[in-house]
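Retro notes (design track)

What went well: tokenization of the new backbones is finally stable.
What didn't: we kept losing track of which sequence belonged to which structure.
Fix going forward: every design gets posted as structure first, then sequence, in one message. First example under the new rule, 343 residues:
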């Protein structure tokens, strides 16, 4: 149900929401709607951090009590929820100009740390592994660490990572991949490549169903295309990559998305579309990030091979491998696991 909320000269349409399903509220806010959350959300545990926990549980939003907007004062609920700029706009028209509670902004670009996953010697870093297990366990229990830099961890005699100086955020819903990755981000500057590999192993071992967190960090994957690609759900991978391309404005990430989408389309037997996407990736790479153009040989070879152009596919692999015929034979096996292009 929607209604008009009038504050002085401002009038906005608000969606009234019954219930406490905050992921559903998150979806409404992502679509740009302003939501009136009527029912009280119980504090998760004994620590009451209202309204911070509500805002963080929804994510990428701001919240303000309706009573603060109307000047009545008093009750915590109903809460008005929306994108930060929308709630700031509403507050600017309130008589007392309340200060909304805003969720911490998420980070989706981790390319400055690429050296962590492109290097390493496969040596085990026990501390990194232990931190990965503990942080994944927190996230799986709907808790964000809040400040996970390397200095905020202690280790017991058994090698378990213990949280030191925590600033926890207790959520009422499963954190998004973006929230989990943002929670990990303070740790990254203090890791070596071996430390990151060990952290990643520990994180995935403790929370195997949430691979999207690592994919977001390493592949800038915001829609789940990488997981679909790995499991051979190529039509879904292509659709998910297209959703991200609709809003992605970083050239090198667009090139990577186009290349992987081209391979997914090829495996889905949509060969003409696959070639168009691959040529678009090559054109953009040559124009905006020429250092990445050579890395597209594998994607071009997969697409050309899917069209039956084997000799051209071999030629496309020559800059990539000293044995292009053997590499193409491996890529075209029915059971082949295509590698994801990560530029």
């Amino acid at each position: 149900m929607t209604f008009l909320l009038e504050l002085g000269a401002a009038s906005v349409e608000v969606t009234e929401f019954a219930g406490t399903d905050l992921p559903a509220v998150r979806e409404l806010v992502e679509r740009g709607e302003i939501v009136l959350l009527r029912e009280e959300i119980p504090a998760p545990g004994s620590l009451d951090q209202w309204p911070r926990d509500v805002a963080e549980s929804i994510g990428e939003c701001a919240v303000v009590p309706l009573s603060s907007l109307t000047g009545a004062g008093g009750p915590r609920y109903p809460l008005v929820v929306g994108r930060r700029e929308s709630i700031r706009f509403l507050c600017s028209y309130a008589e007392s100009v309340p200060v909304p509670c805003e969720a911490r902004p998420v980070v989706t670009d981790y390319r400055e740390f690429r050296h962590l996953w492109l290097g390493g010697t496969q040596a085990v870093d026990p501390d990194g592994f232990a931190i990965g297990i503990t942080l994944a366990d927190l996230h799986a229990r709907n808790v964000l660490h809040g400040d996970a830099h390397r200095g905020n961890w202690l280790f017991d005699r058994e090698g378990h990572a213990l949280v030191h100086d925590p600033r926890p955020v207790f959520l009422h819903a499963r954190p998004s991949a973006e929230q989990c990755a943002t929670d990990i981000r303070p740790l990254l500057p203090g890791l070596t490549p071996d430390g990151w590999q060990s952290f990643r192993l520990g994180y995935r071992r403790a929370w195997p169903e949430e691979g999207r967190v690592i994919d977001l960090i390493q592949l800038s994957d915001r829609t789940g295309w990488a997981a679909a690609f790995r499991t051979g759900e190529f039509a879904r991978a292509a659709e998910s990559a297209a959703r991200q391309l609709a809003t992605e404005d970083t050239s090198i990430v667009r090139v990577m998305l186009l290349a992987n989408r081209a391979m997914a389309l090829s495996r889905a037997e949509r060969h003409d579309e696959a070639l168009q996407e691959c040529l678009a990736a090559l054109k953009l790479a040559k124009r905006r990030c020429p250092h990445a153009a050579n890395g597209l040989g594998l994607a071009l070879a997969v697409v050309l091979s899917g069209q039956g152009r084997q000799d051209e596919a071999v030629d496309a692999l020559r800059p990539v491998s000293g044995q292009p015929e053997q590499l193409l034979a491996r890529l075209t096996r029915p059971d082949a696991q295509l590698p994801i292009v990560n530029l």
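Added context from the reviewer: Residues 24 and 58 are 9 Å apart (CA to CA).
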